Amino acid sequence: MKLYTYFRSSAAYRVRIALHLKGLAFDAVPVHLLQGGGQQHAAAYAALNPNETVPTLDDDGLVLTQSLAIIEYLDETHPAPPLLPGSAADRARIRAIAQTIACDIHPINNLRVLQHLTQAFSLSEAQKNAWYCHWVERGLQTVEKMLARDPRTGRFCHGDAPTLADCCLVPQVFNARRFGCSVAGLSTVLRIGAECEKLDAFARAAPGNQPDAE
Amino acid sequence: MKLYTYFRSSAAYRVRIALHLKGLAFDAVPVHLLQGGGQQHAAAYAALNPNETVPTLDDDGLVLTQSLAIIEYLDETHPAPPLLPGSAADRARIRAIAQTIACDIHPINNLRVLQHLTQAFSLSEAQKNAWYCHWVERGLQTVEKMLARDPRTGRFCHGDAPTLADCCLVPQVFNARRFGCSVAGLSTVLRIGAECEKLDAFARAAPGNQPDAE
């Protein structure tokens, strides 16, 4: 398997976690999102991934895009350990936590949105960062409520083994810290984040441990 | 089943389509996103859905949030007709198309983002609409590329029966038209949208046919 990735991309980071949790070997193909106007916009890469984003997974010629779709595919084709365990109700909760991060926080703050925002409205660096943290803080407070009040939360987001939800949580917490956003009131989120970081799969997937880390 | 919905919410619209495709009866509970500062922020609703968004599905006391997670749950619990048919590779493609819309277009343009954008940066109505159409046009052009170049595209986004991808496509095309965005170059997207609109399930789910339509 070949993963087109960028060390700081939180969508690529999710898939790296899933691959390591599954124990699947992969070749990392770095796509630098900033160099030369963004290597994701090069014609050869855009032909693979018309969204011009990372990650893209090439599984022996089958080209897959969108981080959550890729992780669901990995879970279907390599079921152990399961990242969507349990009943339909369990999976619905795991997916809802994952999507609260992957649909309602991350896309509003990804690179192309920040680039367009600052250019179109001539924003300062401080205004851009305030925008970033507004959505991270609001979104992670929602996730905190989903986790803190639900008895199905365990050592991890759903039970005592990591799931798709944890694959999404950890990169978002990493970004919150990187941009200096407030993590006040996020005791469950931070506790679970710390549990995840104890696992080798999460450590190996971390931005600082990638071949393209700067 | 009880669906908390708003006629114009494209996330609720997706779930309405899925429910009608499955032939599942449901009671629509309208949540007005604008009246009284937004009924989604009322304490009773926020207790159900901490994200304070629609839709929320109550399936006999089991409360589910996030439109894609709800549709996956419906597909697992009521498998016919399948909205994620075929192989793992088929499902990965269907999910990737759905997520290109539900993660990469819609969240950047949803109500709370538009509200925050216009307030934080004192934008005009014209600037807000330009922001909206920028992401719709860019995103639907990506979807067009995913559909037009792939032999797995059929009468619908994936094959000849509607899937999760179509549940996402039709509400986004509706929004593109509503905001007067350009649909130039979207021949496959528009052809599939027109196919969907021939089906009763899509017609019954449309904003204009909801009890809370204005």
Highlighted features:
homodimer, 214 residues, alpha+beta, Glutaredoxin, Glutathione S-transferase Yfyf (Class Pi), Chain A, domain 2, 2 domains, four-stranded mixed β-sheet, 9 helices, globular, isomerase (chains A, B), glutathione transferase activity (chains A, B), maleylacetoacetate isomerase activity (chains A, B), Maleylacetoacetate isomerase (chains A, B), GST_Zeta (chains A, B)
State the helicity of chain A in percent bands.
40-55%
Strands side by side in the biggest sheet of chain A: 2-1-3-4
- CATH classification, class level of the largest domain in chain A: Mainly Alpha
Distance between the ends of chain A:
24 Å
Count the DSSP helices of chain A. Answer: 9
Q: What's the total number of strands of chain A?
A: 4
Oligomer: homodimer
Inertia-based shape of chain A: globular
Strand content of chain A: 5-15%
How does the major sheet of chain A shape up? 4 strands, mixed
Element-by-element helix/strand order of chain A = EHEHEEHHHHHHH
Radius of gyration of chain A (CA) equals 17 Å
CATH topology of the largest domain in chain A: Glutathione S-transferase Yfyf (Class Pi), Chain A, domain 2
Return the domain count of chain A.
Answer: 2
Keywords (chains A, B): Isomerase
Protein name (chains A, B): Maleylacetoacetate isomerase
Pfam families (chains A, B): GST_C_2, GST_N_3
GO molecular function (chains A, B): glutathione transferase activity; maleylacetoacetate isomerase activity
